[in-house]
Amino acid sequence: MGADDSAFTVELMQELMRSMTNWYGPENWDPDNIADRYKSSLKSSVVSRLNRLLTGKAAVVPVDGATEDVIRNVSRIRDMLGGLSRTYDLLADEYSKATLVKVFAYRLMGHKKVKLPLNTDSYWPRRALARSLIKGRDSIKLNFHNFVLNRFDLRELGYPIEFYTMAGGVMVIFIVKQYEYGKRKPAIKAQAGDYVIDAGGGWGDTALYFASEVGEQGKVYTFEFTPENLEVLSRNIELNPQLAERGEIVRKALWERSGETLTFSAHGPATSVVFDHRNGRETQQVTTVSIDDFVRERKLPRVDFIKMDIEGAELRALKGAEETIRAFRPELAISLYHKEEDFVEIPAYLDGLGVGYEFFLDHFTIYSGETVLFATPKVG
User: Fold this and answer.
1) What is the spatial order of strands in the sheet that 253-254 belongs to?
2) Of 213, 309, 290, 299, whose CA–CA distance to 250 is shortest?
3) Does residue 50 register a pLDDT over 70?
4) At a CB cut-off of 8 Å and minimum separation 6, what does 315 contact?
5) 153 - beta bridge partners?
6) pLDDT of amino acid 311
């Protein structure tokens, strides 16, 4: 990997070497991961089972070109190492630093070689709990991958919420809590009375979660523009009238500047104005708004928390929130996983604003999606 001897590079190299003899099977695969499907084979199944039996002893490693893949992937990120090292150095605790190393080891080596921190013995019972919360047979069928959204009742989790979603959404948002960083005290999260920007509303999972957290004195502004997503989102909000008054749906795309017209093709929860997902689908248009302009136009007294999961447009939207960030120093939960360069560019941009943030990192699935950068103002 070159002469770079930064702490990040050293830790990553050590993680890669430790992982070379691993060979995981379906126990390291999320069956609800829509980005890729598990490809089973007799050889892979036998090797995985043998390695589980040989825990602490010599591992069985099939020869299948995996090493060549790792070398190719390492070469892909060679030019990023300096930037990733700077991100690593910005992170304020050892857990965040170790998570960054694990995430990139996984991105380089894949699910056969690396287990992400969430994949522990307690993960699968919690995943089963999420599925157990389906209420009856009422469902919504989507055009996107023929998804079926079941109706969930979250009272067992302490949330008086019913809505249509998938088990993975319940797991990520309400069980492992993707938009909370609880390893720091006090936790980085939306609090009672907060004004929240919910960028990337999808089917309404986060709109309802934040509305529950901010209470009657708070407000949640959820940005979503994909027609099919909006239909589900609106239906979910209507199912929860006790939370509806705490939120507002804004049917525009967050961007660096307001008033631009962007083209997109509907791709369910992965709809993006950055990536081209057309594949023969009809294109549509959406008008942009910046957070700074939105805050000014609505005369918001403050912004306390900004969450972003907008499919690769996070950096552009953050640049459109510079005045808001400088004025209110809101806590941030920003998705980094859509583009590898975001692991470098987003922390660098936010740190460069000079407003005095501490940064933390966590990962909320057992596959490559859902890495979140958290930022909170330094005390004193």
Assistant:
1) 253-254, 283-289, 261-265
2) 290
3) no
4) 342, 345, 346, 349
5) 162
6) 82
Cis, bond preceding 186 (omega within 30 deg of 0): yes
d(CA 215, CA 194): 8
Name the more confident of 308 and 29. 308
The CA radius of gyration of the chain, in Å to the nearest whole number, is: 21
The single-letter DSSP state of residue 161 is -
Q: Are 335 and 309 in contact (CB under 8 A)?
A: yes
Whether 321 shows a pLDDT value over 70: the answer reads yes
Q: What is the DSSP string of 223-280?
A: E---HHHHHHHHHHHHT-HHHHTTEEEE-SEE-SSSS-EEEEE-BTBT--SSS---TT
pLDDT band at 29 (very low <50, low <70, confident <90, very high): confident
> How deeply is 185 buried, as exposed, middle or buried, from its count of CB atoms within 10 A (0-12, 13-18, 19+)?
exposed
Residue 288 CA to residue 262 CA, distance in Å, equals 7
| Residue 281, amino acid | R
Domains and CATH numbers, the chain: 7-109 (no CATH), 179-377 (3.40.50.150)
Q: Tell me, what's the pLDDT at 149?
A: 95
Please give the mean pLDDT across all residues of the chain: 87
Q: For residues 335 and 79, is the Cβ–Cβ distance under 8 A? A: no
